[in-house]
């Protein structure tokens, strides 16, 4: 999280900087042979096993390619991409009853091709083929968690589909894959400079390093922090459900997509700069007010994803590093918006300074009361993804990209504001078993209204009016 101005870093910020500096001085031990799963991978592996290979989420991207596509060149570039990032060649094996990650030798990648040119709507058919590919259960013990598909729409018109299980990828990794594939295509086609060298480290080294850190006493301070921070927090966030969740509630989901109104994004950026907070903190404060009003709660926990790449070595790797950080929100005593921003800032910085302890360890340590039909500790996630989009570039081909959604949601509500070429795209993913789309749309409208009010009247107390019905 970026600091504003030139003032000395605050204590929570300084802890982040000090921890990163300390870790940078310690070498990363190489890993030979099988390696343990990271804690995030272990959670996704268990979920996948329980749900028959369909759990764990991940990535479903489609790239429209208009122009003369050299399929041999594409296969050659993907082969090299898989060679340099061995997480793309990783399966889950067993060693003494424990799941381990096992890298299989490099092999040529040949993208399967499906001809949908005869369909009434070839693009829709390509999307269906992509979602069908994603819906096929993952046998992570037999195959790596990445799949490619090329759909032929017509003359010089294709869709390249990338489908991947979360156990091998996160949002940061998407940028690495696009950048590397673009460079490899240009290099192989002789249209650009030589591709950059392969990463110096491997995801397996991160997993082993993480296990070693958590086995020792280095993170005892993190454990103590989370006990202080979360003791007494409600076990679940109150939401305006259309149907109360129970043990039988499934995880079918939906998504509302839009562009964040330009006036909302612009005003929030100005207020955030004036108050010394990041855009994420500003949006989170307004989101917390929206949720608090909707559920009638002043003390609750919202999850926020942290990149988890706490060492410079991890920044060039493809893999699952992201972790959910619980942020406790305090709306008590009706603070002004400006005061709430200060509260949120301190809570966010303190939480991010202790992000290394995985959420599943926090839950196991605190043992919060379980609420039927809901996830423990964190049921709502909120993120602002600021990283500039990294486009896929294919020589001589016009590329446009879209993201498809699975129609499932393990959380009650997950809101992502993602930087796009036009500003920020908004994605409100929700559990269809407990929410109607109209209810989610009302929350979204209330959120934008709250941002506007906060920016126009930052010294006004947080509103106590009822959310619209």
TrEMBL record:
Gene Ontology, cellular component aspect: cytoplasm
Single Gene Ontology BP annotation: lipid biosynthetic process
Coiled-coil region(s): none
UniProt-listed SUPFAM superfamilies: CoA-dependent acyltransferases
Transmembrane region(s): none
Pfam families: Condensation
Superkingdom of origin organism: Bacteria
InterPro entries: CAT-like_dom_sf (IPR023213), Condensation_dom (IPR001242)
UniProt-recorded Gene Ontology molecular function terms: catalytic activity; phosphopantetheine binding
Start and end residues of each Condensation domain: 33-462
Name of this chain's protein: Condensation domain-containing protein
């Amino acid at each position: 999280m970026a600091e504003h101005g030139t003032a000395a870093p605050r204590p929570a910020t300084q802890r982040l900087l000090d921890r990163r500096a300390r870790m940078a001085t310690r070498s990363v031990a190489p890993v030979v042979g099988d390696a343990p799963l990271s804690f995030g991978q272990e959670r996704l592996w268990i979920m996948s096993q329980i749900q028959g290979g369909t759990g764990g989420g991940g990535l479903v991207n489609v790239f429209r390619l208009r122009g003369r596509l050299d399929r041999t060149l594409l296969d050659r570039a993907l082969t090299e991409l898989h060679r340099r990032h061995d997480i793309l060649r990783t399966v889950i094996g067993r060693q003494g009853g424990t799941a381990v990650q096992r890298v299989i030798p490099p092999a040529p990648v040949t993208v399967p091709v499906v001809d949908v040119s005869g369909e009434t709507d070839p693009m829709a058919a390509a999307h269906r083929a992509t979602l069908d590919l994603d819906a096929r259960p993952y046998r992570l013990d037999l195959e790596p968690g990445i799949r490619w598909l090329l759909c032929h729409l017509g003359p010089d018109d294709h869709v390249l589909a990338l489908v991947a299980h979360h156990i091998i990828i996160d949002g940061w990794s998407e940028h690495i894959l696009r950048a590397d594939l673009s460079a490899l295509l240009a290099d192989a086609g002789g249209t650009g400079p030589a591709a950059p060298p392969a990463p110096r480290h491997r995801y397996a080294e991160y997993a082993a390093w993480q296990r070693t850190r958590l086995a020792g006493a280095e993170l005892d301070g993190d454990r103590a922090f989370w006990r202080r921070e979360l003791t007494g927090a409600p076990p679940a966030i109150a939401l305006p459900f259309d149907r109360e969740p129970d043990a039988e509630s499934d995880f079918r989901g939906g998504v509302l997509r839009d562009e964040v109104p330009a006036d909302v994004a612009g005003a929030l950026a100005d207020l955030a700069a004036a108050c010394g907070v990041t855009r994420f903190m500003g949006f989170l404060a307004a989101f917390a007010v929206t949720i608090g009003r909707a559920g009638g709660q002043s003390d609750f926990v919202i999850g926020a994803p942290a990149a988890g790449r706490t060492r410079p070595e991890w920044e060039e790797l493809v893999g699952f590093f992201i972790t959910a950080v619980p942020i406790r929100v305090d709306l008590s005593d009706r603070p002004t918006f400006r005061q709430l921003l200060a509260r949120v800032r301190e809570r966010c910085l303190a939480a991010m300074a202790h992000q290394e302890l995985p959420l599943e360890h926090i839950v196991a340590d605190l043992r919060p009361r379980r609420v039927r039909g809901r996830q423990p500790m964190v049921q709502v996630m909120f993120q602002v993804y600021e990283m500039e989009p990294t486009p896929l570039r294919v020589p001589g081909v016009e590329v446009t990209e879209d993201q498809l959604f699975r129609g499932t949601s393990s959380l009650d509500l997950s809101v992502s504001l993602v930087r796009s070429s036009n500003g920020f795209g908004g994605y409100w993913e929700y559990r269809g078993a407990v929410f109607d789309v109209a209810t989610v749309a009302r929350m979204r409208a209330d959120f934008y209204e709250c941002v506007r009010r906060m920016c126009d009247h930052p010294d006004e107390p947080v509103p106590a009016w009822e959310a619209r019905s």
